[in-house]
Amino acid sequence: METMKAVGLHRYLPIENPESLLDLKIEKPVATGRDLLVRVKAVAVNPVDYKVRSPKEKVEENPKVLGWDVAGIVEEVGPDCTLFRPGDEVYYAGDITRQGGNSEFHLIDERIVGKKPKSLDFAQAAALPLTTLTAYEALFERMKISREPNENKNKAILIIGAAGGVGSIAVQLAKWAGLTVIGTASRPDSVAWAKEQGADYTINHFEEFVPQLKQLGYETVPYILCLNATAKHWKNMANAIAPQGTICSIVADGPLDMLSLVNKSATFVWEWMFTRAMFQTEDMIQQHMLLNEVADLIDSKKIKTTLSERLSPIHAENLRKAHSLLETGRVIGKIAIENF
Length: 340
Hints:
There is one protein chain. With 340 residues, the chain is an alpha/beta fold. It has two domains: 3-128 and 275-338, Medium-chain alcohol dehydrogenases, catalytic domain (Quinone Oxidoreductase, Chain A, domain 1, Alpha-Beta Complex), CATH 3.90.180; 134-270, NAD(P)-binding Rossmann-like Domain (Rossmann fold), CATH 3.40.50. The chain contains ten helices and 16 strands. The protein has helices spanning 47-53, 122-126, 129-142, 165-176, 188-197, 209-215, 230-240, 275-278, 286-299, 316-327, and strands spanning 3-12, 22-27, 35-44, 56-65, 70-77, 89-92, 105-109, 113-115, 156-160, 180-184, 201-203, 221-226, 241-249, 267-270, 307-311, 334-338. Strands 3, 5, 6, 7, 8, 15 and 16 form a seven-stranded mixed beta sheet that branches. It is globular.
């Protein structure tokens, strides 16, 4: 049996516990069907990592490997693959129903893999897939915002949590589509980061939205993208959304008063980036195409990586550090870890 390095867990423990994430040797997988075997060069962390890892009674006999942001090189292709060949540089977010990418080699369905942006190194590329897929699907598929700037003239979007991982790329994509972007941020460093990504204005999410929007000249906004604490911000969002506007959230955290949207005929929609892979939807290959489109946008300098911190090497200690930072809720941009 050929083995490989990985970082995983047997028990679901607080991140302060050194056994919460362990350096392991596990069996190296083999590519079959439409799977690629990818040599992992860099990974990034997201809130989903620590949410899956959060303390619970369950014990894993076979180690559970986390990690849903990978950049690497195709090592092998399954017999049914048509999109990639060995040696191709790729990036992707993966499939939450399978083992994650915190391992030397990783199996992934080619339909949710994109070509790595040529102008980025592996850590810069690994910072992008999960957040980019989330932001792109939320804006252009769930909220049905046009990607034609001419159609978005004089239209504004409010992005709650504009300096976080998803927010950083959502701001850029919304600006690329021609929207006026109002981001929420509460600290000088997060305000500065949101503006660096292209936000036209920022407001404070710890204060009422409508009075702050009015100071910017907006009574309401047609689009709101919520990337943090949906239940907490619900009343503010219901007040700020325009009649017939659309709210999209990625955070499921409690009952929501849908009746508050009735008089405005407002739409509410969820975005969950793993839906296509989880349910093997017929349009799963859209994520391949989407990541390729974003790679082209990156290489043509229309948008940029959201990497804010890089660690090396990929091992349990650095992953525990990254999880600890994320759990503070104060991380700006993305943390990536490179090299085994």
